[in-house]
Amino acid sequence: MSRPLLEVAGLEVDFLQYQRGLRRRTVPALTGMDLTASAGEVVALVGASGAGKSLLAHAVLGLLPPNAVERGTVAHDGVPVDPAARRRLAGREMTLLPQSASFLDPLAPVGRQVRRSAQLAGAADPRAAAEEALARRGLGPDVLHRYPHELSGGMARRVLVAMATMCRPRLLLADEPTTGLGAADVRTTLGEFRSMADDGAAVVLITHELLAALEVADRVVICRDGRTVDAVDPADFTGDGSALVHPYTRAMWRALPVNGFRIPEEV
Q: For residue 187, what is the enclosing H or E element?
C-alpha cells in the first residue's frame, strides 16, 4: 500500500456557543477521529446518525464554521495542512460529494450547474460533458433544463455524483451517496467509486449502510459518538460476527435485519 493520501489523527472539534449575554459554552462534537485513505482504496466510514461522519468530511476540506475549534492533525499526501490550505485543495485535489440536495443552487437550472463543474474540470466542451455525465447515470437531456426542486431525491443525488466526480479528484469524500437511490443505481454508484479507486484515487465512503459498503470497501472504519472505535477487514463481517473483536462493531453487524436484529447485551 502506498503512503496514505489522507491521514487524520486525533481530530477533535468543539463548537463555541454563546448563551445569555457573553456567557459562552463549549460543545464537543468530535472527540478523537482517526482515518487514513490511500490511493487505490475505498475506505468505508460507518456509524449511526450523529456519530460525526459528515462533520469529519467537512473538517477534512476546511469547511467548518467560524465557531469551530479544531485540534489534531490532517495531512494530505504526507504533509500536514491547516484548514486554509485544505480549502485551497477542495474542488481540485479533494472533492466532497455532499449528503443533501440543498447543496444545489435552487435558483439555477441543473444544466448550468453541471456545465460549470465540467468547465472547472477542464472539459473542452462543457455542454457535451454535462450531457454525457448525466446520461451515464440514467438522466436524459431534459434534466438539464430543470431546477433542483423539480427533481426527485434520487435524481438530485445522481446530479450531485456527476458534479463531484467530474474533475476526477485524487481524493473523494462521498457523504451518504446512496440515500434515496434504487438498488440498481446504488450498485452503479458504488461501482463508479470502486472504478475511481482502481484508477488510483482514494475514496472515503461515508455511510450507515454497512452491507452496501462491504461490496466495494477495502477497509471499514467504525465511529461512534465522535470517535473512531474500530478498523476492520470487510471479510470479518461474516456469520455471527465472531471474527469482529470490538463489541460495538459486532453489535452493529448482528443488529442488521439479515442477522435477525440481535442486540448483544455487551454494548
A: helix 183-198
pLDDT at position 119: 93
- Tell me the β-bridge partners of 94: 90, 171
The number of distinct structural domains making up the chain is 2
Distance in angstroms (rounded) separating the CA atoms of residues 160 and 151: 12
pLDDT of 185 reads 84
Is there a single domain that holds both residue 126 and residue 211? Answer: no
Place of cell 477495502: 218
What pLDDT sits at residue 1? 54
Cα–Cα–Cα angle for 230, 235, 241, rounded to 5 degrees: 65
> Which set of grid coordinates corresponds to residue 62?
476546511
Q: Which long-range contacts (CB under 8 A, 24 or more apart) does 106-110 make?
A: 106/147, 106/148, 106/149, 107/147, 108/147, 109/144, 109/145, 109/146, 109/147, 110/143, 110/144, 110/145, 110/146, 110/147, 110/148, 110/151, 110/159
Predicted TM-score (pTM) of this structure: 0.91
Answer yes or no: is 246 within a domain.
no
**61 and 35 belong to one structural domain:** yes
Which three three-digit cell numbers place residue 124?
473542452
- Note whether 161 and 185 are same-domain residues: no
Instruction: Tell whether 38 and 52 lie within a shared domain.
Output: yes
Domain span holding position 59 = 4-93+169-236
Strand partners, 118: none
Same domain? For 184 and 151 the reply is no
| 128 secondary structure, DSSP code | H
